[in-house]
Amino acid sequence: MDIILSTKNLKKYFETKYGLVRAVDGISFNVIYGETFALVGESGSGKSTTGHMIVGIYEPTSGKIYFKGQDISVPASKRPRFLRREIQIVFQDPASSLNPSMYIKDIVGMPMRVHGIVRDEGELKEKVMELLEEVDLPPEYYMYKKPRELGGGELQAVAIARALSTNPKLIILDEPTSALDVITQTKIIRLLTRLQQKQNLTYIFITHDLAVVRNFATRVAVMYLGKIVEVAPVNELFLRPQHPYTMMLLSSVPVISDEEEKIKPRKVRSVGEIPSAISPPPGCRFHTRCPFAMDICKTQEPELRLIDKAKQHWVACHLVQMK
Amino acid sequence: MDRPSVRISRWDLWSERLRKWWFRFSRSPLSVAGFIISTTCVMLALLAPLIAPHPEHAGWYINTDEALQPPSLKYPFGTDQYGRCVFSRVLFGMRYSFILVGVVLSIVVPLGTLLGLIAGYFKNTLVDYIIMRIADIFVAVPPLVMALAIAAVLKPSLINSMIAVSLTWWPWYTRLTYSSVSSLKNEYYVIYAELIGERRISILFREILPNCLGPILTKATLDVGWVILVGAALSFVGLGAQPPTPDLGTMVSEGAHLLPHYWWVSIFPAMTITIIILGFNLLGDGIKDIFVEERW
Amino acid sequence: MVLKTFSLKSDGDSVEPLLRIKNLSVGYKTHEGVTKVLDNVNMYVYRGEKVGLIGESGAGKTTLLNTILRILPPNARVFRGEIVFNGVDLLRAKKNVLDDIRRSRIGIIFQDPMSALNPFFKVRDQLYDALRYSKFLDKNKKVDEKVLKETSLKMLKEVALPDAERVLDSFPFQLSGGMRQRVCIALALTRANDLLLADEPTTNLDVTIQEQILNLLRDLVNKRKLAVILVTHALGMLKGFVDRIYVIYAGQIVEVANTNKLFSNPQHPYTRFLLESAPRLTGEWRAKELPERIINYINPPKGCRFSVRCPYATDRCKTEKPQMIEISSGHFARCWLLRKV
Predict the structure, then answer these.
(1) Helix H or strand E segment including B168
(2) Looking at this predicted complex, what is its ipTM?
């Protein structure tokens, strides 16, 4: 299996007036070609920061990021130009990720213009029209609209078209549907799935919404307070969640049907709050909220270990590792 | 989909834009009044040589027989102490006023905005500090004082008053743009452009500047009135255009001692200043309305 | 869970609802024109009943809650309607009557706790203020610092805030989102003796905190036998909390039913799309796609407002407003394609 992206002990600390915020504190994972790798977590988990580092908005404090084997652990401005075409990003709030003063044509065409993919205005128009068709936005209508005239779903489709314009191999999707209502969310997720199959894309899908993850991702990594606590293929994670935090997350998802209610883990209900990232709890970061916390959990941090080779299921938990 | 398919041309785009601007602008009748007043003033100033009944009076001219005539058909605004037609002089005075404004703003607005763009984008670096501290120095000097200083070095004239006003005016645009840019540069669409690898100059002019224009254009329109007022004040104290150049401020000061009996010599130029400022202020309000973007 | 079924008896000993909204139409005056957001909304809530209001952003849910409490912005226009609370028409009530109701009858929890709390004042000051201007405190006891502090601590403990003393002494920005929302709930409870309005109280919170807050709300509401209108855009939140659900689209109520009936037998096309679109934890995601349409409140369609988006829309749907049809007892929907059972 070919790995398109991998991180090794990636860390990002921010200096603030309240102290050092350890947003991402040593995470390592691989992303395989063609898969949808989900980074799941709540606020303070570090998932967005990770995405920002991969795409180059932040420079890692330490640790490495490898893209197709090449070390890219630097901010975007220091990366070779072709990388800016290969790795793309779609942000959460389309209203602020698209320039409100520009026409859709220019928004979508910007990356192609910058990289010289098109030679003149005419070719730019052609390509933009093709891209808008790809994302189900009839070009004749949308080309000369401005962002304020469109709804959230349409704007996200534009952002996706823009991301596709440079023929990327990897797209970071940073909570792409969190700002959309549930009906529009369906549309966007379906669109993303279609595009992935058609163009052989790899997605890193950052979100807090477990229900969408189950219906979109192939593999999932659960993050808590800057660390990865569990990694597994999506079905495996939902059927046999191992880490107490994963179970807590799952049991908190609001569901409608009775059968969904049944598969929610019963043993762990939500308690407590996310501790501060400036002074995280010693040992296992989750121990302050974990119903199974043992003495060792308070002093020693568990490592992320492979607990099921066949199913490629990794967990960072003393209790699980003792079995 | 049931959306109409229409091929759009450049002309369509611009006419739609103008229509939208006019729609937002014209919702306030006062703004429309401002538009009418200001365009009329500009037209009058432009056509001064053609409209003025006695264009030669706008220079060296003395005719003591016709001096201090009250307003009449021959002299709509009366004549001054040298027998010159006040109306003609007012028309030419407007010309000089607008020339002053035109020159000052064409220098100050682009320069100030550009410096603000650069300082704001490179916020918290040496470039920012240098530009903004220099701006602070210049903004601390009142235009009148600056004009005095320049007049002390060079002789007082219209051009030198333009220089003086420009030097004290540009920092306001720099500050205005600076504050807009500082917040805009953290918007995700700017970050995205940086990620893609767009050149910084391109980012400044394509991504950031169009979103700053609102306050800048509004201020520029309101500034027309202010600059004319300051220019008139300079001329009033003798630092601006020198006689016999018909300058509205100079005319007010020359006729001041003739009040109240020969009121027309001062009052008409003063009223003209007032009307021009009023017109452009109302226009500025309307321009501000154009840039109000609301999503429903 | 035993669901209370309330029904409007047509005559005889009819139990009057605590809150009755009749034919309410509300809009706003904007730069571009006058919007007509709420269109003939009818709703009722009985004493002790928990009602949910579900719809997407911009559907008018917040407008509705704000109209009940008369806290609309100055450019709002109430075109017509009545809001009868305990026999008083809130839309036409005098200020002192309204103040009294706001002080001790109806409380509201807003969506964003960060902007609902004043950043310049400590929690203590905001809680004391709320208590001083409510009828919550015992009239016989002198209102002094000691009484205020005791009552405040008691309330913070009730909303399961650990370390209540420290919370009292903190500024809002020093608290987490979940803690802030608990403070807001405490504040709302100083007022709500009859009715609690909750405007998407957990939308901005993490999902694990959401669960905790919803459980807390449920316990508090049950304990005090409060009536609740819970507004949200997520259906899952309503299950296990409310007895009845109103579905709103573009300012029109399109369906109302008991929670169980709504989930098991949704009738209106919009409700069905909502239910189908929610991604599931089990089974397949068989949602159909619906085109996105921005609702034009300045020139809304003459007929059913959902007709612009509805794949089954007929010409009649676009021109004539459908009336509410009774599907079964307590279950109503507004759609030309449905027939009375």
Answers:
(1) helix B158-184
(2) 0.92
A49: left (phi over 0), alpha (psi -120 to 50) or beta: alpha
Apex C285 CA angle, C283 and C286, nearest 5: 115
Q: Is A6 helix (H, G, I), strand (E, B) or coil?
A: strand
List the beta bridge partners of residue A65: A7
What is the least distance, in Å, from the CA of C51 to any CA of chain A? 17
Cα A283 from Cα A263, distance rounded (Å): 30
Amino acid at residue number A211: A
- CB contact under 8 Å between A264 and C293, yes or no, is no
- Residue C120 to residue A171: CA distance in whole angstroms: 42
pLDDT in tens, B242-269: 877 888 888 888 888 888 888 888 999 9
Per-residue tokens: B101: 């404004």
DSSP letter at C268 equals S
Q: What is the CA radius of gyration of chain A?
A: 21
Long-range contacts at B232-238 (CB < 8 A, ≥ 24 apart)? B232/B97, B232/B273, B233/B144, B234/B143, B234/B144, B234/B147, B234/B161, B234/B164, B234/B165, B235/B161, B237/B144, B238/B156
Phi-psi region of C161 (alpha: psi -120 to 50; beta: other; left: phi over 0): beta
Residue C318, SS3 per DSSP: helix
* Subunits close to C (at least 3 CB pairs below 8 A): A, B
C38-59 per-position pLDDT tens digit: 999 999 999 999 999 999 888 8
Say yes or no for a CB contact (<8 Å) between A76 and B211.
no
Phi-psi region for residue C311, left (φ > 0), alpha (ψ -120 to 50) or beta? alpha
Q: Residue for token digits 């501060």?
A: A276
In whole angstroms, give the CA distance from residue C277 to residue A183. 5
State residue B161's pLDDT score. Answer: 81
Residue C245's H or E segment, with its range, is: strand C244-249
First to last CA, chain A: 29
Interface of B with C in 13-52 (CB under 8 A): 24, 27
Q: Is the pLDDT of residue B28 over 90?
A: no
DSSP-based helix, strand, coil % in chain C, nearest 5:
35, 25, 45
pLDDT value, residue C137 = 59
The string of pLDDT tens digits covering residues A173-188 is: 999 998 888 888 999 9
Query: Above 90 in pLDDT, residue A95?
Result: no
Specify which residues C30 forms β-bridges with: C33
DSSP one-letter code for A227: E
Number of continuous H segments (helices) and E segments (strands) in chain B = 12, 0
Give CA separation, A76 vs A79, A80, A81, B192, in Å.
5, 8, 9, 10
pLDDT (mean) for A98-122: 92
A234's tokens = 């999506």
Segments of chain C with pLDDT less than 70: 1-14, 135-143, 340-341
Which two tokens mark A301? 């941090």
In DSSP notation, C62-116 reads HHHHHHHHT---TTEEEEEEEEEETTEETTT--HHHHHHHHHHTEEEE-S-HHHH
pLDDT tens digits for A227-241?
A: 999 999 999 999 999
Interface of B with C in 264-293 (CB under 8 A): 292
Kindly report the length of chain A.
Answer: 323
A168, closest residue in chain B (CA to CA):
B196
- Domains of chain B (ranges; CATH) run 26-62+85-290 (1.10.3720.10)
Q: Residue A67 has what pLDDT?
A: 95
The chain-wide mean pLDDT, for chain A, equals 92
